[in-house]
From TrEMBL:
InterPro entries: DUF1501, TAT_signal, TAT_signal_bac_arc. The keyword Signal applies. Residues 1-22 form the signal peptide. The keyword Signal applies. Keywords: Signal. This is DUF1501 domain-containing protein. It comes from the Bacteria. Residues 233-255 are annotated as: Disordered.
Length: 415
């Protein structure tokens, strides 16, 4: 989903606050966040939620693949994966071959797969379905996102939630409070001989005065920012050059990717102690009506290439170990392949939840491929049950304050 389409989505979703926010009314600079980390650091035992949106409707059946099911093979004669092509998870299911890193997290019991997630009376419109997921209101449109309402209920500080996407998503817009926006932007320090000389300016010198010492420290602080935030604060040209080089070297389809840069930035902010409890990132392009297999596997490899080092990095620090990642898409795809080696808009799909605090394994029932509703999978888990679990066990909030009228919750998803 490109920026133009995102803007259209923001307009049509009904979350009116997000339109003004996307224009930059709440944009912050990385220096604002790092200053907040100094003034009001996040307690090391506070949990953090990272929400990753897969825009376009990811095909769940070719993500968590029922390759051994004859009904799957019959419905997708050219599109189906064979049992020996997928990464075995048990229960007759396997991960897409592009998700090798997530398979490692699964083996380490750090990945939970919630199967058959959807909502009542599904809508196959991208805009309506995404609005439902982001507002957590399947029956009637409302003007606030579910994490925006969490902000409303828990305090007025916009730094408690941060989006690193090009535009602020509706899920972070509340009625009285909205998250901050921190789009990726360029920061480059000198290289070569000039860079060496610049780095030397940050070294303390015997007998220097107060203001000389402060100036030197500012240079050191800037160097530390580039070290902590890494390639996420490189210029757009530098990132493109790095990604081109990684593609050339065959480092996996998609190179570092924009999602990789988003997650690297988030990891640095978490490690720095920024007082943010919820982050939002995204990856688009999953509307695979044609030539799906190659396109989706490339995108899932891109997701895997970004998520795996992110999870490995988080596991090395106390704050990182308290971080939970939620990955979802607005709907799955139809069970039967279409005539273009792709799939059309469908209903239920899997949700990934990962991290040290996650109870790894399957949650929820696998949808039947023979007992369908108008050719679509029947959802067995309401997406709000997933939200309720992370609201209560990650963000420490009564789900009833955010998910009005919904009482369900997935038990045992988090430890």
């Amino acid at each position: 989903m490109d920026n133009l389409t995102r803007r259209r989505f923001l307009t049509l979703s009904g979350v009116t606050a997000a339109g003004a926010l996307a224009a930059g009314a709440t944009q912050v600079h990385w220096s604002d966040l790092l200053a907040a980390a100094v003034d009001d650091p996040l307690p090391s035992d506070d949990s953090v939620l990272v929400v990753i949106t897969l825009y376009g409707g990811n095909d769940g059946l070719n993500t968590v693949v029922p390759a051994a099911d004859p009904a799957y093979q019959k419905a997708r004669p050219e599109l189906a994966y064979q049992p020996d092509e997928v990464l075995d998870l048990g229960d007759g299911l396997g991960l897409n071959p592009g998700l090798k890193g997530l398979k490692g997290l699964w083996d380490d019991k750090k990945l939970a797969i919630v199967r058959g997630v959807g909502y009542p009376e599904p809508d196959r419109s991208h805009f309506r379905s995404m609005a439902i997921w982001q507002t957590a209101a399947p029956k009637s449109p409302i003007p606030t996102g579910w994490l925006g309402r969490w902000l409303d209920a828990t305090g007025a500080d916009p730094l408690r939630a941060v989006s690193v996407e090009p535009t602020l998503p509706p899920l972070l817009a509340g009625a009285t409070t909205a998250a901050a926006s921190l789009p990726l932007r360029g920061l480059a320090l000198p290289k070569g001989a000039v860079g060496t000389a610049y780095a030397a300016l940050g070294k303390a010198s015997p007998g220097e005065g107060l203001w000389q010492a402060k100036a030197a420290k500012s240079v050191l602080d800037l160097q530390e920012v580039t070290r902590v935030l890494g390639t996420a604060v490189k210029t757009g040209r530098e990132r493109a050059e790095d990604e081109d080089e990684q593609r050339t070297q065959g480092a996996s389809a998609g190179g570092a990717s924009q999602l990789g840069a988003q997650l690297e930035l988030i990891a640095g902010l978490i490690e720095a102690g920024v007082p943010t409890r919820a982050y939002s990132a995204s990856l688009g392009g999953f509307d695979t009506h044609a030539d799906e297999r190659g396109t989706q596997q490339r995108l899932l490899t891109e997701l895997d290439t970004a998520l795996t080092p992110f999870a490995q990095r988080l596991a090395k620090t106390d704050r990182g170990k308290n971080t939970v990642v939620l990955v979802y898409s607005e709907f799955g795809r139809r069970v039967e392949a279409n005539g273009s080696d792709g799939t059309d808009h469908g209903t239920a799909g899997p949700v990934f939840v990962l991290g040290d605090k996650v109870s790894g394994g399957f949650h929820g029932e696998q949808p039947s491929l023979t007992e369908l509703s108008n050719g679509d999978l029947v959802a067995g888990t309401d997406f709000r049950d997933v939200y309720a679990a992370v609201l209560q066990q990650v963000l420490g909030t009564d789900p009833g304050k955010v998910l009005a009228g919904h009482n369900g919750m997935i038990d045992g998803l988090l430890v």
